[in-house]
Amino acid sequence: MTPKIRIHLADDHQVLIDGLSNLLQTVSNFEVAGTSLDGTTVYDDVVKDLADVLILDISMPKKDGIETLKEFKEKQLPCKVIILSSYDDLKIIKEVMKLGAKGYLTKNCAGENIIEAVEAVYQGQEYFSDAVREKIFNSFMDSPKLNHNVIIENPILSPREIEIIILIALEYSGKEISEKLFISSHTVETHRKNIMKKLNIKSTIGLVKYALKNNLINP
Asked: Which residues carry this modification: 4-aspartylphosphate (predicted)?
C-alpha cells in the first residue's frame, strides 16, 4: 500500500483550515495529520504529527510564518513547506523561498491549486500559483532581448525550466538565476541538467539556440 502524504495546516482562521482540510481529504493518498492556529506551536506540532508537507500562512499570531520558516531551516526539519498567503509581494516571495519554502499560493486561488501543489512539493518539485509565477517572471522582464509576447507553455518542459532557459539565454549566471527565481544554485544546476537531457542539448550554446529558435528571446 502506498503511504499517505501527511499534511499539516497552519492558519489562524479555523474556517479556512476546515475548508482546506475537507478539500484535501477528498484525495485518497492525502491525510490531514494536524492543524495549528498559533505560530508558536507550528514547529512542535509538525514534528509530533510526522508531517510530510506543511501548508503555512505568513500572518500567524504571536509568531509569523517567516519566523517559523527560519526555525525549520535552523533545525533542518525535512518537512516540505507551501506558503499560503493573502500577499503576493515579490519581497515576501523572495524571502520565504530563500528560507526553504517549496511552494507559494495566494489564498484566492488555494482551492484550485492546493492539491496539485501538495503533490508537486512532496515529489521534490516547486509550485507557484499563476499570479505568483507572473510576479517572478515579470521581475526579469526588463531585458530588451526578451520576447515579451512569449507564451510559457511546452509539452516537454515545465514553466520553471522555460524560465531558466530564458535566463541562461540572456546570459545570467547560475548565481544570478538563483537570486532572480529565489532558488538555490544547486537547484538551478539540477534544472539545467534536466533541461539539456530532455532536449538532447550538449552545451549552453545549444540552450541559447533553442531559446532563439523558439522565440523565447529576440536576436
From this structure: 57
Q: Per-residue b/e over 151-165, b at no fewer than 16 CB within 10 Å?
A: ebeeeebbebbbbbb
Distance separating alpha carbons of residues 166 and 67, to the nearest angstrom: 33
pTM: 0.72
**How far apart, in whole angstroms, are the C-alpha atoms of residue 60 and residue 7?**
18
Helix (H) or strand (E) holding 153: none
Helix orientation angle between 159-169 and 174-181, rounded to the nearest 10 degrees: 140
Phi, psi of 139 (to 5 degrees): -70, -15
> What domains does the chain contain, in order, with CATH numbers?
5-128 (3.40.50.2300), 140-213 (1.10.10.10)
The DSSP bridge partners found for residue 31 are: 6
List beta partners, residue 34: 8
Contact (Cβ atoms closer than 8 angstroms) between residue 56 and residue 65: yes
Rounded to whole angstroms, the Cα distance separating 218 from 108 reads 35
**Residues 192-206: pLDDT tens digits?**
999 999 988 888 888
> Which cell numbers in the block locate residue 157?
518542459
